[in-house]
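Per-record layout

source: Pedobacter psychrotolerans
name: NlpC/P60 family protein
length: 182
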Amino acid sequence: MKKITFAILFFILSASAVNAQNIIPAQYQDLVKKLVATLPRNTSSTFKDGSSANSESLIDFAKSMLGIRYRYATSNPKIGFDCSGFVSYVFSNFGFKVPRSSREFSGAGTETTLENAKVGDVLIFTGSNSKIRRIGHVGIVYSIDENGIKFIHASSGKAHSVTITELNGHYRNRFMKIVSII
C-alpha cells in the first residue's frame, strides 16, 4: 500500500511540476502540501500563472511603499498600514497566505536564526515594551551586510510610517524570533 501511495504522490508531484495548471485531487491536497513543505527551501517560488517571487522582487515591492503612514489595524496602502498589515500586504501580493496578526506570525513559515537570516525573512518582536515578552511587532529583512541586518516595517514610532530600521539597540532587545516565508 505504501508503494502505491508513494507512486501516486510521485506522479501527482511530477505532473504538477511539468504543468502548473494541473489541479490536485482534493483527497491528496493535504498530503501534497505536507510533502512539498519538506522539500528544501530556496529563495524563489513559482505560482500557477508561471510568475515567480524572490526576495529581491518582494523587497522592491515593499520599498515602493516607504513613507506610507502608520495606521493601526489597517492593511491598505491608500489608508495606511500597521506592522502586520504591511507585512501581510507585501507577501499576499506575491500569492503567499500569511497571517494578518503579528502574534500569528510566530506559527508561520519556518523558524530560523539570525545567523541564517535571508533577505525577505520576517522578524518578530515584542510590543514596544521589551520587558513584556509577548509578540507585538513584525518586519521584513531588507538587507544583510557587514554592518548587520536592516528591516522594513510599518513603525508606530518616530517615523510613523513604512521605514527601514537597523536591527540594533531598541529592536535587538525586542527581538523574539525570525521565520522564513519564501
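summary: The first strand starts at residue 44 and ends at 46. Confidence is low (pLDDT under 50) at residues 2-22, 35-52.
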